[in-house]
Amino acid sequence: MGTERGRTVLESYKHRAAKEVLASWLRSDFDVVKEAEFSADGWKFISDIATFKDGHVQAFYEVVHKHPIDAKKLGRMQYYCFYNQLELLCHEVDAEWILLQVEKPDRIVDFTFDLNMISDANN
Fold first, then answer.
1. Which one, 33, 63, 92, 99, has the greatest CB density within 10 A?
2. How far is 51 from 122, CA to CA, in rounded Å?
3. Which residue has the higher pLDDT, 117 or 6?
4. Buried b (16+ CB within 10 A) or exposed e, 8-34
5. CA separation for the pair 119, 12 (Å, rounded)
6. Is 24 helix (H, G, I), strand (E, B) or coil?
7. What rounded mean pLDDT belongs to the chain?
8. Residues 6 or more apart whose Cβ sits within 8 Å of residue 4
9. May I ask the CATH class of domain 2-114?
10. β pairing state of 89-94 and 111-114
11. What is the share, in percent, of the chain residues with pLDDT greater than 90?
């Protein structure tokens, strides 16, 4: 990710380049927004990449270089999904893996977090 100085977050070149490559892969199937800010009930987070289809968010993608996604950000993502009654996934993708690919892979290797907090009371 990067270092926070005041309100500006600095990211490494590796993280930025990997994010650009991943976004280019995802654009063939989705509308892609990088550094999209989401908020619910005063809780905010910024997703490295958010994918959309027909104007609806489909998933969050986080590019990780030195540190995995922290619990605070995951909690905010989960609360956003709960608040908006969404069933979404967050995909954590390693920057090194992205940059080692020669062409767009058939499958993106990631660690997936299920952000679903909606329970079906009828089952």
1. 63
2. 30
3. 117
4. eeebeeebbebbebbbebbeeebebeb
5. 39
6. helix
7. 89
8. 10
9. alpha beta
10. antiparallel
11. 75
